[in-house]
Amino acid sequence: MTTGHTVEKIGGTSISRADELMDTLFMKDTEGGPYGRLFVVSAFGGITDLLLEHKKSGEPGVYGHFAAAESDMKWSSALDRAAERMAAEHARLLDHSGDRQDADEFLLDRIEGARSCLFDLQRLTSYGHFRLGDQMLTIRELLSGLGEAHSARVVALMLNRRGLNARLVDLSGWRDDSHPDLETRLTDALEGIDFDRELPIITGYAQCREGLMREYDRGYSEVTFAHIAALTGAREAVIHKEFHLSSADPKIVGADKVVRIGRTDYDVADQLSNLGMEAVHPNAAKILRQAGIPLRVANAFDPDNVGTLIVSDVAIPPRVEMVTGLPVAALEVYEPDMVGVKGYDASILKALTRNDVWIVSKASNANTITHYVDPKLKALRLVEGEIQNAHPNAEINIRKVALVSAVGHGLLGLDVPARGLQALAEAEIGVLGVHALARSVEVQFLVPEDSLRAAIRAIHAGLVEKEVHEPRNSPEG
């Protein structure tokens, strides 16, 4: 059963600009005044990279150094760097000296507590009788929780200073030995909070028996957000980003050429997640969809715009919602003896799964199976070796390509495959393949690796900019 409140998630890049969001978002006068909203916050931008590892480059942070060499103290120096950056963030955002002192003391307690824990574990393993084993995941969660507890504390202090009744809700399990399941963690933390008179500022990381990072790694904050929305029966779930969910990346096609999607469904959201778009984590979307809670993706810095509403079981007119793409590796396995024999596909999938390779798409014919996957060549070489051992006569080829996808509704009825090919031909971009499924929600175009951005521009021009759609920016979203 839904109530009148909303649960709202703010990502790291946006929460780093919390001072800009005070009046436009946090203190915004809604039907219940500034209350009736629960905010789930990520760590300030870049902090989780320093605590774990850089999300894109893989450069080690505290966790990366500790995991790579338990016997040296590089991790401690990395922890110092993270603490300095965190202190600089709250010094920049907090105006009052008392609030800065509060944040300094809070940060010191968390950082030195974590340092003591890591040092003790390091000392134990030096005896040779102890192995960290599963404790590495616990360490990863401990470090990750530091960032979100810090940002939530700082935002709560900022709001309290402005006269709002904000309450820090720390789900990180700091110095808590109860180890509850996720539902108990959330229920206990929210018990007694009056949503109509208090503004909960909640950590995106929740320590629980299930271990969120084991399942979702760094996508855990959106999963926490979705569970809170479902558990509390929220009227709506909102994700605040620093951009609108639009028909393409404005940095690629131009801000004057994209259009806000406005209203779509969870089917499209699933396709975008599979393509690496950060609209919403697929597991978070699943939780919200099953609970019947609509999801709004809003631009945190455009407060008067309704954003994009994602709902279930609603009629969406045929149209291309978004054109996006990503670099992939084509893992092609050719085996003449494959015809009529079962098991080839299963063995390839097992090798990909064992090496944690993300599959974007696949295609096959009588004697060839091609998977389009995350282009991590080190992992793919391991996959190649496993497949070759299982099928000695197979010819295996790995090459980098780009996959550009048109996502929307009724795409086959709009003749998207042919029109997309025409747009690419007019832009003189070679095409390596086209995939179009009968469900008509996505058409994929495979192009040379160096043509990714040009192909997105060409297909967006041909399928979105020239198309007349139903109004996307209507007040109802």
Characterise the protein shown here.
The protein is built from 17 helices and 14 strands. With 477 residues, the protein is α/β, with parallel strands linked by helices. The chain has two domains: 237 residues, Carbamate kinase, CATH 3.40.1160.10; 146 residues, 2-Layer Sandwich (VC0802-like). The longest helix is centred in the N-terminal third of the chain and has 29 residues. The radius of gyration is 24 Å and the shape is globular. The two termini are 23 Å apart. The relative contact order is 0.10.
Please write out the topology.
Blueprint lengths: L5 E5 L1 H4 L2 H9 L10 E5 L5 H5 L10 H7 L5 H20 L3 H29 L9 H27 L4 E4 L12 H9 L8 E5 L8 H5 L3 H13 L3 E6 L8 H4 L9 E3 H9 L7 H10 L3 E5 L8 E4 L7 E16 L9 H11 L4 E6 L3 E6 L3 H14 L4 E15 L6 H11 L6 E4 L5 E7 L3 H14 L12
Parallel strand pairs: 1-2, 1-5, 2-4, 3-4, 5-7, 6-8
Antiparallel strand pairs: 7-8, 9-11, 9-12, 10-11, 12-14, 13-14
